[in-house]
TrEMBL record:
Belongs to the BTG family. InterPro entries: Anti_prolifrtn, BTG, BTG-like_sf. Residues 143-164 are annotated as: Disordered. GO terms for cellular component: cytoplasm; nucleus. It comes from Polioptila caerulea (Blue-grey gnatcatcher). Residues 149-164 have a biased composition (Polar residues). It comes from the Eukaryota. This is BTG1 protein. SUPFAM superfamilies: BTG domain-like (SSF160696). One of its GO terms (biological process) is negative regulation of cell population proliferation.
Length: 164
């Protein structure tokens, strides 16, 4: 069922693209029409990039591959979408946080601003056909967490899933 995978990731991708678009809008100086085009280009780039790397049955598989990251280097997917509306990487670095990590996984989209910031969940849905298992890491909402998260370890890229 390779071709059906695209529809399954629509919500996750549109959530992630909308988030990056909101960051650009908040920074100011980018027109609404450009933002709309940026969001569509980013969604398209993500769909293409994730096509063979989306595993709803093993949501953490491929997480590092799907991770969108700005860390002194511009993420190529964001860079590509920005190029379509004429924004240079230099301009993007002015508009977006200099340290941003966005995880786009089946059933969950989360982000972190800064290397030791809190991980905040943008979108979460229960996995179909799975008993609600205790998650490997329980995360409080950002508001409660942001004060106490100074010493929390970074989210691991190859988190092991335990099958029973």
């Amino acid at each position: 069922a390779g071709s059906g995978a695209g529809a399954d990731m629509r919500t996750e991708i549109s959530t992630a693209a909308a988030f990056v678009t909101r960051l650009l809008r908040a920074a100011g100086g980018v027109g609404e029409e450009q933002l709309r085009c940026f969001r569509e280009c980013l969604q398209e780039a993500m769909r293409e990039h994730y096509k063979h790397h989306w595993f709803p049955l093993v949501p953490s598989k491929g997480s590092g591959y799907r991770c969108i990251r700005i860390n002194h280097k511009m993420d190529p997917l964001i860079g590509k979408a920005a190029g379509m509306i004429g924004l240079s990487h230099e301009r993007l670095f002015q508009l977006l946080p200099s340290e941003l990590t966005l995880w786009v996984d089946p059933f969950e989209v989360s982000y972190r601003i800064g290397e030791d910031g809190s991980i905040c969940v943008l979108y979460e849905s229960p996995q179909p056909g799975r008993k609600v298992a205790k998650q490997l890491e329980s995360r409080t909402s950002c508001k409660e967490e942001w004060r106490t998260s100074r010493s929390s370890p970074s989210k691991s890229y190859n988190m092991m899933t335990v099958s029973s």
